[in-house]
Amino acid sequence: MRIAPDQVTRITSIGGGPIGGGWSAHFLAQGYDVISYLHDPAEEAAFRAIIDTAWISLETLGLKEGASRDRLTICFDLEEAVADTHFVQESAPEVLDLKQALYTILGMAVPEGVVISSSTSGLTMTEIQAHCSSPERTIVGHPFNPPYLLPLVEIVGGAKTWPEALSWARDFYEIAGKAPLVMNKEIPGFVATRLQEALWREALHMVANGEATPEQIDIALINGPAPRMAMQGQCMAFHVACGEGGMATNLDQFGPALQLPWTRLEAPELTKELRDRMVKGCDSIAGNRHFTEMAAERDRGIVGVLKAVRDARGT
Amino acid sequence: MRIAPDQVTRITSIGGGPIGGGWSAHFLAQGYDVISYLHDPAEEAAFRAIIDTAWISLETLGLKEGASRDRLTICFDLEEAVADTHFVQESAPEVLDLKQALYTILGMAVPEGVVISSSTSGLTMTEIQAHCSSPERTIVGHPFNPPYLLPLVEIVGGAKTWPEALSWARDFYEIAGKAPLVMNKEIPGFVATRLQEALWREALHMVANGEATPEQIDIALINGPAPRMAMQGQCMAFHVACGEGGMATNLDQFGPALQLPWTRLEAPELTKELRDRMVKGCDSIAGNRHFTEMAAERDRGIVGVLKAVRDARGT
What we know:
By secondary structure, the first copy, chain A, is an alpha/beta fold. Chain A is built from 13 helices and eight strands. The first copy, chain A, folds into two domains: about 5-180, 3-Layer(aba) Sandwich (Rossmann fold), CATH 3.40.50; about 225-315, no CATH class. The first copy, chain A, has helices spanning about 20-30, 45-60, 80, 95-110, 125-130, 165-175, 190-210, 215-225, 225-230, 235-240, 245-255, 270-285, 290-315; strands at about 10-15, 35, 70-75, 85-90, 115-120, 140-145, 150-155, 180. In chain A, strand 4 (about 85-90), helix 4 (about 95-110) and strand 5 (about 115-120) form a beta-alpha-beta unit.
């Protein structure tokens, strides 16, 4: 039986690389006992260095009561590492055969019902769980790099995953200081990477065509959309920028611009259904807040973001 | 004759909307005398409200010595507004006929050599300057919304623009507290909007296909790529994340992922030339800084950005 998300005290993190190390540091900072499984004792020094680097930032963000690096146990025996655990975060290399073999062992060794979450970015859980004897509790919990800092965890199941495992994981990650996003479907790249990848491919096209240099691309992002996007996602940025009319005004007025060659990515057809989904989605995020209130919040956020970046650069 | 960029004291801002108002507020905060031309006296109240709203943020970011809203003059006569000016920022409605007629007047009324910069986002200067009698000093200086906060100004000329006007504008905007980006070519959407638009179109595709809701898209951005991108552009984010190997490792190792269906945007062919441009570009931004130093700076920045967003939300 799995315990309630708020009763978790012991976590197993599998993998000695930057993702496994980042997760271990995050869970330690959240006040958990963490057992980190490393494949090879030779990885230990680099692994501890990742945690020590992360700790500098985690201390500044604020540790949970009782959080300590002393609560880390490094373990080189996989079955021992998971024997008495409440949650497993797996960050092994992105090789399907390897992951499948790992989940065959985990499926038997991890206590019944305990959720096993994979950090995979390129594989689906349907593939990974194929040879696992208890696939119903295996999920993807995909972090964003660096995982000890960025809050996002994209959660999605495979074909054999039970819905309860997903809702348990959503509740657990939220308690554990993350921003969980439960996805409706298994899609390649999940949500955040798809958005970032579209931007990245456009950037590569521009460099390939001599339209911009890497430096110009980074200047444009850092000084343009990014400080705003850290405070407001792109949907709400357009919603709030259009004042009273919100997203409806944006789409009705600027819809034709979707046909302009403003990127190599062709836009979907702006059907009434898509328009309404966008409008309803933004209205629901806004709740009963007036756009002036959201714009003021946005401005306070951007001012803070700009100052934070300035401070970090020492300029 | 145009004066040196650091000798500018008087600026004319044309347009009473959010962009014209945002520019006026920014230049006032930078300690300039600003004459704002409004088309219609009925616009004045809303225009002053934009400036007052912007002023809250501008005070927090820090005003230049002597900066004051008392140094704003509102003027309803276009020729009078530009008669004695050192620089013109034009933010009239995005209608080509209207802009062309405006530039016909400005070409004659603005003192010789004084740079006239258009905030246009959708038109090219080649089109706008077509009927202007002194097109050589007309440029695009495209801000990002909100223009009183986001530092980016994308600068590009039209077919008849002299290169000196572009370099003068770059120097001037930098002195005036902006982050200028001089573009190599007139391309639709400039740099920042093309990148943002690629991301936006992918977001619309995901909503159209039921793969994500607007809320999920915004959660993904705010908690994933955006806080990092505010500190490090996407090129340097990948460069630094790959450690010693930098962008070369990124492209050589993850190049095949460009063929994966991680967005609807097809990637360009990763030729040796493109690879080398990316690598050289990142190496040049990095200078002689080691990746560990840049990663530490990134982490300090992200920590500050996350705290700033938290503070602005009051959470």
